[in-house]
Every structure is written in structure tokens, then in C-alpha cells.
Specification:
By secondary structure, this protein is α/β, with parallel strands linked by helices. The protein has 24 helices and 25 strands.
């Protein structure tokens, strides 16, 4: 992965040098010589990294050299980002940011503070340049060959990957498993086991059974828990309770959790899957098993494990040993992937070598899928021969057999996508990864950049996601209402492989109050990305603050039953100042304890991604507007939020203002009109105030918004004619629009004809796919008929039209029938 890091840093350096030249943001002490030296060393190192990455697999010294190079590159990255921030600040307010240093450099042109920062940056650049110089000279010891990195192949379209969910060659296992699960058993709560090596398809078989109609009809409750390592009794118990519809917020003791499970499963015939079990400690398993015995007769447990000793410990007598695929089964799956879309002539030419490659997968479905997905994009016989003859097949010291084909697939990834893949290991096993959030996190780390031909980085990120999906490195794709992929998971073995590559740069830390978090086992200088799950109220490990190199801190609210303690925020913001991504989101079922964002958030000058979703904050501090690098601000579902900072115009790099369902918002600051990069604005509220600091509907004409937009409180519009200056027809990238005619309680009642005129003016683009009209109060005819006639012209392309109208009927709100005049 060093290749990806170094290439990214080199791109960043070249970009900043260009900005400095154009904008005359000059350093001191003739540091330009150091900058050129830094660039020269990076370029000299970059051209040997392909060879170095290959040699590190067998040579420990090369591995250590690459590790030192990677750490030095991260230091360079931080210095360059500080330099970039200085340029941004000068663009915004004409001054360099403050920096406490003990130097004096007189100048007639600049203030002491400006010169101080220039000295500080110059010293830091010199230090990282010298460190890289030493590493650059060391490379001569290894005799690396200069190999030009292969740039990424043809673009992978969103619909191009094949999601292979079929199970080949396991018909006997499927039949036996379903029979065992549905048959009557005299044994009290029998445990059925699927055993076999990693990547052989145990989880896929368990999923097949879990979703089988006969199984669904045989049980009252079905529960799926990914166990993995370690066997965390608290997390497993909470997952079972939540699957049964129970709450765990007030349950802190393990015994109380088990008692709650015992109560919930009474009289219920349940089917529990414990996927990927590793523990051999009977003392951890026994209490859970005893509480599960309270279920109705016929309940069953299915476990998947790689270890036969686990089966014995759990007392399972129904054992299904999942076998490797036969050669024919391997070839059938391999052929489906690699020959997809090829001509018959092409398939015939590649069949012989394809069978030799599929045989090297040793009957492991995951290996076949990964390698087949890789070769699907290799058009020439010579490329297939290169894979067949790879030295990686000869490796002896490797953690899993399936890691060899995974390494082949990983090494074939373009350097920029390698970092994206390894970053995913920050999420725990079996975590449901949201695609849009993942892409924004990649963007925050600089892994995804704008490309030529005006291709936005979000589109590039989509291509990277699809690229990884097309190589079977993602699985279990989740889709939205429009059948577009919205999320995924990683196979547990792919997760292991990514962790093998990552070497604890990305870690998941679980804090439950009963054991110390495993931070002490990590090299704190290497940890860059952290996701934390807090399982006990009010806990937060102080050791987190020692991870000063951290670029991502993500609070896992999905798997946590507790809010992040608000008292740690000032220290978090003040000490982890290298952060690029920060998520302290709440959880929609919980009442978040965070009611204020401290002003110290302004110290996070490197921040690109800030997720405050579901918090109970009423306002955001003005210091947040000093985060000039910020690309994503997610405040969606902050139902108490009343106002945004007045200095929003300073967030010159903001691309996504995710503010959906912030219904308490009173107005949008006028300065937002200056955010030329803004692509996402979920909720625009029309203020009832004529304050010059509020943004009117006319302000929408300055944006090119993508996705969906909700315009709220249209009843507050005071001048209908003013709206004509902001036609929504120009927003051609919006596919969803909600027009909400609600008004503030003290607003005047709008005349029917004004509502009709306003609706007619707000004609959206013909590209719109969904239109929703809410609280429209205009109607024709007698009130007693309770009819609303809405005329919408030029809307023939709309696929979905939803009109939701409130009227006052006998003093209360009610629904009335709608008559639409829409020319389809």
C-alpha cells in the first residue's frame, strides 16, 4: 500500500506547488529548494514501488523499509495539508492562520503572525524532507527495478459487476441442512454446525438456510448474530435482544441481559444463527446456552466455524463438514464470472488456461469468485498466463490459502483504489457499510480526487466502489427503492485479508467497561483510522487521545446502545487535530446526550467530513466556519437545530450539506449562496423574516444541486413575484423535489390564487423523477366537497407524483381527495 500513499502525497505536493505559484503564498528561508528535493525524492521512490511491493512478500527488510516510507509519507501529508490550509485561509480572509512559534523574522510586508507561520511551515517541510532523504538513499540497498505502475483499466460501470450469490457444488449440504433445521428433534435446543476452512462457503450456506421458505415457516423468530473474534458476551446478548424487538439501554449487567433474553424467547420457537464462532472457552458459552433453553420446543441453533474444537466445546452433535468445490464446481463458477459477455471464440481460446487457474483455487468459492472477477477484465491470453505463473502461488508462509488469489486481485488494483479497499477494515466484521458515506470518507482522506473532463469526485468514488464490487471484494449488496446499490458488507475473510495488509492502521475499538480496549496492543504511531463502539454509558478510553496521528475517528452508533459522552468533545477536538473525518453521530432510537458542539471544533483545520447526525444541538458554533477544508457536513435528523452559523460562506470547499429532517431550522444563512461547490442541500426553509442575512428562494439559483431537495414553509413567501427569479427548472440534476406549503404559526393565511400562482412558478426540471406536494391549501369549488384540483404542466417525464394536502376541517387536520391535471 506504500505505492498508494506515496503517489497520493506526490499528487498533493504538485497541486500545492501550483497553488503557491499562482497565488504567491511564499515561504521563507529559501525552502523552495527543500520542496523541490522532496518532490524529486518522492518521484524517484515512486518508480520502484511496484517492484518493492512484490518483493516485500518474501523479504522482511523490504517490508520494514516500506513501513518506514509509509509513516514518513503520512508526516509529509500532514505538513502539506497544513500548508494547503494556510493558502485557503489567505483566500478566504487575506491572512495566514495563527501559529504559536518562538521565532522572529522581521518583514516590512507581513505581520509577525504571518511570518511566524511561514517559518513554522518551512521548518516542518525541511524536517520531513530530510527524513525522506534518508529513506530514499536506503532504497539502493535492495536493488529495486524501475517498473511503471499500470494505470487503472477500463471504467467499471455501476451495472457491470456480477453479484454471485448462487452456491455451486453444495447441493447435498443444502438439502441436509434444511432437513435438519425443519425436522423434529428430541434433543432440547440442538446445535447444528457448519464447519470448514475460511472462504469455503459456510456463511453463504447459513444465509441460504436462514432465508429458505421452509425454515421461515418453521420458526416464530429468526436471529442472526455475527460472532467473530473475540467472543463478546455483552455484544452477542444485546444483538439477540434487539433482534427479538427488545431494548438494552437500561441493561448493563450480563445476567440481566441473559434474563431478558430468557423472557423474550418464552413460548417462541426460534432459530438462532451464530456466524463465525472462534472461542473454545466453555465458560463464555454456557450461560448464554442455558438462557436460550427457555425457548419453545423445536428451537434450534446453527453455528459456522473454522475450528472443529469449537464444535466439541459447544456440544454440537449435528455436524455438516462443508467440503471444497469439485474441479467441475470450481470451473462452473469461474466460467460464469470470467466468460461473462465474451464471444464464443474468445471463451474457447481461454478455456484451457482458465481451467488451470481455477484448479489453483483449491475448491474455495471465495478464491474462485475473487480470481474469476479479476480475470473477467483481462482480455488477452498473455494476461491470464501472467496470473497462472505468478510467484504468489508459491508462497508458503501466508495466513490462509485464499489470501493468494486475494493478493493477486489486490496487486492488480490501481494504486488509488488500494487505499480505498484497505480503509474499509476500519469497520467491524459484518458491518453494513453505507455506500455514500464510504465515498465521502474516501474523499475526506484524499483517496478520491476530481478528474479531468469535469468529472466530480463523487462520480469517481462511485467508480471506485463499483471497481471493488466487480472484483468480489464486497458482498451482500443492499439496494434502495430504485434498485440502486446503497450499501454492502465485506466477507469476513476479505476483512481478515484487508487487516493483514493494513497492519493496524485501521482499527475497531470496543469499549464495554469490563475490559481494557486493545489500544495497548497497537503501535500508536501507526494507527490512523479508528471506529469506536461504546457498550456502557459514560465510558470513553483516555488512551484514544494518545493516537495523535489519527485521521479518522468514527463513533459506531449503529452497534452501540449508548451516546458518546459530551464532556470528552473539547479534548477530542483539541488534541486529535490531524483528523480528516469525524463522526460523533447519535442513534435515532436514543436521546443523544450531546446538546452542544464546543467551539474547539474550529481547531480541526484538516477536517473534511463531519457527521453530527441525530444530535440534540440547537445551534452550531461560529468557529466551525473556520474549517475551510470541510467537504461534508451531516446534520440530518438534528430535530432541535434552529440555526446554522452566519459565516457559512467561509466553507468554500463544502459539497454536501446533509440537513434532511432539520424541521426546527428557522432560516438558511444568506452566505450559503457563495458556496459554489455545493452539490447537496436536503432541506431549504423559507424564512418568515425579511432579514438581509437570510437566504431567500432566489438564492437557489446559485447552486447546481444533485439528488433530492425539500423546500419547507413555502407559506412564508411574502412576494410571489420574487420567486420567479429562482426557477427550479434550472436545477437539472435534481431527481426528487418536495414542495411543502406549510407556514410559521404566525404567518398570514395565503389566498388560494397566490398558492396556485406560486405552485405554477415552482415548475421543476423535466429531469425530475419524484415530486411531492405537502400542505397545499388551495382548492376549487365548495369546501364541503373537500376537493383539491392541482394543475401541473410540462411534467410528462415525472415517474412518481405524490400530493399530500392538509386542510382544516371542523377545527382539525384531515386528508382530502386530490384531483390532478397532469399531462402524461
Amino acid at each position: 500500500m506504500a505505492e498508494a500513499v506515496v503517489s497520493g502525497v506526490l499528487q498533493q505536493l504538485i497541486s500545492i506547488i501550483g497553488q503557491e505559484t499562482q497565488q504567491e503564498v511564499k515561504l521563507v528561508f529559501c525552502v523552495h529548494k527543500e520542496v523541490e528535493k522532496l518532490r524529486s525524492n518522492l518521484e524517484a521512490i515512486e518508480v520502484v514501488l511496484v517492484d518493492a511491493e512484490d518483493k516485500q512478500v518474501k523479504d522482511k527488510n523490504v517490508r520494514l523499509w516500506l513501513d518506514r516510507l509509509k509513516q514518513a509519507s503520512y508526516d509529509i501529508e500532514d505538513v502539506l495539508d497544513e500548508w494547503n490550509y494556510a493558502i485557503l485561509k489567505q483566500n478566504v480572509d487575506g491572512t495566514f492562520p495563527k501559529k504559536k512559534v518562538c521565532f522572529f523574522f522581521p518583514s516590512s510586508c507581513f505581520s509577525f503572525k504571518q511570518v511566524s507561520l511561514r517559518i513554522h511551515l518551512a521548518i516542518e517541510i525541511k524536517e520531513v524532507s530530510e527524513k525522506l532523504d534518508v529513506i530514499g538513499k536506503q532504497k539502493e540497498m535492495y536493488g529495486f527495478n524501475v517498473i511503471t505502475s499500470v494505470e487503472k483499466s477500463d471504467r467499471v460501470q455501476t451495472t457491470s459487476f456480477v453479484d454471485v450469490s448462487e452456491i455451486y457444488g453444495q447441493d447435498d449440504c443444502k438439502s441436509i441442512l434444511i432437513d435438519k433445521l425443519c425436522a423434529n428433534s428430541e434433543q432440547r435446543l440442538p446445535i447444528i454446525s457448519l464447519t470448514g476452512m475460511g472462504g469455503i462457503g459456510k456463511t453463504t450456506l447459513a444465509q441460504f438456510a436462514y432465508n429458505h421458505d421452509m425454515v421461515i415457516n418453521s420458526f416464530d423468530k429468526r436471529i442472526w448474530v455475527c460472532v467473530s473474534e473475540p467472543f463478546d458476551e455483552y455484544r452477542i446478548a444485546k444483538a439477540i435482544i434487539e433482534s427479538l424487538g427488545g431494548l438494552t439501554k437500561d441493561l448493563s449487567e450480563l445476567q440481566s441481559l441473559y434474563q431478558h433474553i430468557s423472557t423474550l424467547i418464552q413460548i417462541n420457537k426460534f432459530f438462532l444463527v451464530l456466524d463465525d464462532v472462534w472461542t473454545e472457552d466453555f465458560k463464555k458459552w454456557e450461560p448464554l446456552y442455558h438462557c436460550l433453553k427457555n425457548g419453545a420446543h423445536g428451537s434450534k441453533i446453527l453455528i459456522t466455524t473454522r475450528k472443529k474444537s469449537v464444535v466439541g466445546m459447544m456440544g454440537s452433535i449435528d455436524i455438516i463438514d462443508v467440503q471444497r468445490l469439485s474441479d467441475d464446481g470450481c470451473w462452473l463458477l469461474f466460467k460464469q464470472l470470467t466468460f461473462f459477455g465474451r464471444s464464443a471464440e474468445e471463451c474457447e481460446k481461454l478455456e484451457e488456461i482458465g481451467k488451470k487457474i481455477s484448479n489453483k483455487c483449491k475448491g474455495l468459492p471465495l478464491a474462485v469468485k475473487t480470481l474469476g472477477s479479476l480475470l473477467r477484465f483481462k482480455k488477452h491470453w498473455e494476461e491470464w498466463k501472467h496470473v497462472l505463473d505468478s510467484e504468489l502461488w508459491k508462497l508458503e508462509k501466508i495466513e490462509e490459502d485464499v489470501f493468494r488469489p486475494l493478493l493477486l486481485s489486490y496487486n492488480d488494483l490501481p494504486y488509488m483504489i488500494k487505499r480505498c479497499f484497505v480503509y474499509c477494515v476500519v469497520f467491524p466484521k459484518d458491518y453494513g457499510i453505507d455506500k455514500d458515506d464510504l465515498i465521502k470518507l474516501w474523499m475526506a482522506q484524499g483517496y478520491v480526487k476530481e478528474e479531468q473532463e469535469d468529472k466530480a469526485m463523487e462520480i469517481v468514488g462511485e467508480e471506485y466502489f463499483d471497481y471493488l464490487a466487480s472484483r468480489s471484494l464486497f458482498q451482500e449488496f443492499r439496494k434502495d427503492d430504485e434498485n440502486n446499490v446503497s450499501g454492502c458488507k465485506m466477507h469476513d475473510l476479505v476483512h481478515d485479508f484487508a487487516q493483514f495488509l493494513n497492519k493496524n492502521e485501521c482499527v475497531h475499538i470496543e469499549v464495554d467497561g469490563f475490559k481494557k480496549p486493545p489500544i495497548s496492543s497497537f503501535n500508536r504511531e501507526k494507527v490512523c483510522h479508528v471506529m469506536t463502539t461504546i457498550c456502557s454509558e459514560g465510558l470513553f478510553p483516555d488512551s484514544i487521545f494518545s493516537l495523535r496521528r489519527m485521521h479518522s475517528f468514527l463513533y459506531n452508533s449503529e452497534d452501540s446502545g449508548h451516546s458518546l459522552p459530551p464532556n470528552i468533545l473539547p479534548k477530542l477536538f483539541g488534541e486529535l487535530t490531524c483528523l480528516r473525518a469525524l463522526s460523533i453521530t447519535g442513534k435515532w432510537q436514543l436521546n443523544s446526550l450531546i446538546k452542544e458542539i464546543p467551539k474547539e471544533v474550529g481547531k480541526l483545520i484538516h477536517l473534511r467530513y463531519l457527521n453530527l447526525r441525530h444530535l440534540n444541538v440547537r445551534k452550531l458554533p461560529e468557529t466551525l466556519c473556520g474549517l475551510y477544508n470541510l467537504q461534508t457536513l451531516d446534520i440530518s435528523h438534528c430535530h432541535q437545530l434552529e440555526e446554522l452559523p452566519q459565516g457559512m460562506e467561509k466553507l468554500i470547499n463544502l459539497r454536501h450539506l446533509e440537513n434532511g429532517q432539520t424541521w426546527s431550522l428557522r432560516y438558511i444563512p444568506k452566505g450559503i449562496q457563495r458556496l459554489s461547490n455545493l452539490r447537496t442541500l436536503r432541506y431549504f426553509v423559507v424564512s418568515d423574516s425579511n432579514d438581509e442575512n437570510t437566504c431567500s428562494l432566489e438564492g437557489l439559483k446559485y447552486f447546481n444541486l444533485f439528488g433530492e431537495l425539500h423546500i419547507g414553509k413555502l407559506g412564508n413567501v411574502s412576494d410571489v413575484e420574487e420567486v420567479e427569479r429562482s426557477p427550479l427548472k434550472n436545477q437539472k440534476s435534481l431527481f426528487g423535489l418536495t414542495l411543502n406549503f406549510h407556514k410559521d404559526d404566525d404567518g398570514r393565511e395565503r389566498r388560494n390564487e397566490e398558492n396556485e400562482t406560486l405552485l405554477e412558478i415552482l415548475q421543476p426540471s423535466l429531469n425530475l423523477e419524484k415530486l411531492k406536494i405537502v400542505s397545499y391549501r388551495g382548492w376549487h369549488g365548495e369546501q364541503s366537497k373537500f376537493e383539491v384540483h392541482v394543475s401541473v404542466s410540462d411534467m410528462s417525464e415525472i415517474a412518481y407524483l405524490y400530493v399530500y394536502v392538509y386542510v382544516y376541517v371542523y377545527g382539525g387536520l384531515d386528508h382530502i381527495p386530490i384531483f390532478l391535471e397532469v399531462p402524461f
